[in-house]
Amino acid sequence: MIATVGVIGSGTMGGGIAQVAARAGLDVLLHDNVPAAVSAAVERMRADLRAGAGKGTISATEATQALARIHPCKSFKDLGAADIVIEAALEDLAVKRDIFQALDAIVAPSAILATNTSSLSITAIASLTKTPETVVGMHFFNPPTLMPLVEIVRGSRTSDATTLAVRDLALRLNKTPVVCKDTPGFIVNRVARPFYGEALRLLGEGVSTVEQIDAILTRTGGFRMGPFALMDLIGIDVNYAVSQSVYEQFFQEPRFRPHPIQRRMVEAGLLGRKTGKGFYTYK
Amino acid sequence: MTGRATSTRRIVTLAGDAILVAEFAAACQERGYTVECIAAAGGRGSRPRIPGLPKGARRVSRPSVRSSLAIELTNIDKDAKRRNLVLLDRTLRPGTLLLSSSVTVTVSEQSSWIKHPGRLAGIAALPGFLGGSFIECALSGLSGEGARQGAAAFAQSLGKEAAFVGDSVGMVLPRVVCCLANEAHFALMERIAAPEEIDTAMKLGTKYPFGPFEWARKIGYGQVYAVMHALHHSFGEDRYRPAPALRRAAEMEPLGDAKSV
Lengths: 283, 261
Description:
By secondary structure, chain A is of the alpha/beta class. Chain A has twelve helices and eight strands.
């Protein structure tokens, strides 16, 4: 039974995962290369939990108890006490493989090593560890405190026991787990590609406009956001990088080919909300 | 005073895929149209059942010349669509508006089938798409201003807004939704996850209104396959190749809903 969760990375994803685990009654060992980032994450959690207590979604006592379960790590080795370590560092294969090799040397052989990657191969990350059967993907969605889905990604050598244990953990975190194979983009980032790709093609072919496509897809299709508004929110560079990654990992499968409009916008620095201008202009 | 009763209600003539005919019949009747559905053009006395056709919608063998407009709603069988359009064009008064589903055949191509292409406008008709705020419309280079105004007025009469888009197979919403469903079928073939898991992931991970399999079932696998097949044929690009699993699902679908009338 998993009682202690190690989390690597204290950004939006790592901090959010830590908060979710603490609220579920698990002890959390939180580590970041930058110690100040851990303090900042704990402050964000404190503010969020206080706000929750103010709104009545959590009691003041529960909020205090959840915060008390977050233990900032003084050193990387402290993660060795965890039953599972969830890595939420940079989305870079070399970085993640280094982390997993280092974890391999400090955790118990029975400990589970999970990565929160959204598009990198679990099998490749696991390949440098001594126990690839304990390595698994746990893809939380942003923000982890609100989004209910967790993709549980089985690498080529992930064991059934690891998969079941992680699935059980996701349920304890009040999440909805879906188990999937280790293929590019997993489920969501793969099946959603046409939402963006076809919208960009419709725009490029002059069939419709940004505003009209978004309006049709939301007000007739029932999508919560149109593809262009959503690309602006995600970041056009981030969306383009995912498209490119899936395209390359599928050996240039035409269904996943990124669109030149997106590349040109990235080149121009028009990245969406974060730069004030993307497909729409933001004040 | 006696005399033949006359009706000022607008008559709309419908033909095409049964599921769409039933859906449009219900929407039109609710908005005060008198609905007539023609049997398959060129058919010999057979009148396929139209599941869900509202009471009061009449089955007729030929379009009434008194029709205010006609709507051709075939997406699956191109030959049947052509026969229906030719019949409607030949029978209706030349100025009568002709709307036609244009998600699997462009308005331009359909225009070449009939003698009065000026009255023809395309609409994006797929099962379940009438519930939103817009009706996507498209025009060919031969469509007249009357067709544009007529399509807009029809949309308005159903309480919706016409969204005019370019004349391209799949139009906007059908193209995006059918490509999502197609990709989900490729994922299924690779055994990435079960259909229920894929549906759950797409609804919870992206907040889509329906999972791709759930949506394909609502639309009809045959309809989704027809759109993908038409996109593949129209663009000649492998990115639109229908997933074999989608084709199998379409082949196994009960014929009742998909059959043309």
